[in-house]
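Tokens help. Consider this.
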Amino acid sequence: MSWSPTRIFEAQPFLDTTPESLKQTLYTNLIGMLLCYQATARQMIAQGTGGKLVGSLTFCASRAVLAFPHTLQ
């Protein structure tokens, strides 16, 4: 089994979010997960025993996060 906890999060107001900060967040979170899962899958195949890759979503999708300034209003 593999779990990829690689994530970054920068709390900032929606109107202050720049394309650069969004690109950095997406790159780190998505590419980091991809590379971890690829390495794990290669190891599982090499061992010949199989396994499971478990993906997790952010908790931000299921509840308000007080770190976001615009959620405090």
Notes: The longest strand covers residues 2-3. The longest helix spans residues 19-47. The mean pLDDT is 76. Helices lie at 19-47.
